[in-house]
Amino acid sequence: DAGVIQSPRHEVTEMGQEVTLRCKPISGHNSLFWYRQTMMRGLELLIYFNNNVPIDDSGMPEDRFSAKMPNASFSTLKIQPSEPRDSAVYFCASSSPGHSYEQYFGPGTRLTVT
Amino acid sequence: SQQGEEDPQALSIQEGENATMNCSYKTSINNLQWYRQNSGRGLVHLILIRSNEREKHSGRLRVTLDTSKKSSSLLITASRAADTASYFCATLSTLGRLYFGRGTQLTVWP
């Protein structure tokens, strides 16, 4: 298995632009998680899905952030409009109950908003 | 908060020494997991200990769990420079969500 795949790996954009981050979870995993990591705030859970359904989005900072999971093999995290304070590394992770919910992380997307 | 809290925040040792990191949490858990993150990379699962287990080994890693004190420790024996990374504990809630701490930054000097 290729593991969790994220794209792009790096994104540099100007304030006000729309940003879309993509994630392909490991095949067979039924839970998907979006995290944000910064030096100041550490690793924050933004939202997670079980069987493509959002379960807990209480970590989404504000209405500028939205996430979708149209099928079991794809998810997006969108920021519109982006702001400099959104600069961070965004990780996607997937897991399944059959593995005691051990999470497999993707390589992350480093987002810089200027 | 259900988050695990690691202690110390940073640890610096020489190669060959043992490294011990601690984690405390506040609520009941199903299991506790330790992850490692190398600079610029995603987190990688190291070891899992279930709530009914007290100790677990994997290679140079030893994890203990004390549910009465709501604490866990990760011991890395005979450390190597390549062990330099951040180490996170994570507790699993009954809903299948993991709660991560802020991590311990371990530096192993050659």
Largest interface: A-B, 23 and 21 residues
Mean pLDDT of chain B: 92
Strand content of chain B: over 45%
* Helix content class of chain B: under 10%
**Assembly state:** heterodimer
Could you say which structural class the secondary elements and strand pairing of chain B correspond to?
A: mainly beta
Q: What is the strand tally of chain A?
A: 11
Q: Strand tally of chain B, please?
A: 11
Characterize the largest beta sheet of chain B: strand count, sense, and whether it forms a barrel. 6 strands, mixed
Q: Which residues of chain B sit in consecutive blocks of at least 5 with pLDDT less than 50?
A: none
Distance between the termini of chain A: 36 Å
Order of helices and strands of chain B: EEEEEEEEEEE
Q: Outline of chain A, from the CA principal axes?
A: globular
Q: Would you tell me the structural class of the helices and strands of chain A? A: mainly beta
Largest sheet of chain A: 7 strands, mixed
Topology pattern of chain A, helix = H, strand = E = EEEEEEEEEEE
Q: Low-confidence spans of chain A: pLDDT under 50, at least 5 residues?
A: none
Distance between the termini of chain B: 38 Å
Determine Rg of chain A (CA atoms, Å): 13 Å
Provide the gyration radius of chain B in Å: 13 Å
Task: Give structural notes.
- The complex is a heterodimer of chains A (114) and B (110).
- Helix content of chain A is 0%, strand content 54%.
- The mean pLDDT of chain A is 93.
- In chain A, strand 7 (65-71) and strand 8 form a beta hairpin.
- Chain A has no helices and eleven strands.
- Chain B is built from no helices and eleven strands.
- Chain B has strands spanning 5-7, 10-14, 19-24, 31-37, 43-50, 55-58, 61-66, 71-76, 85-92, 98-100, 104-109.
- The model of chain B has no long low-confidence stretch (mean pLDDT 92).
- The interface between A and B is medium-sized, with 23 and 21 residues.
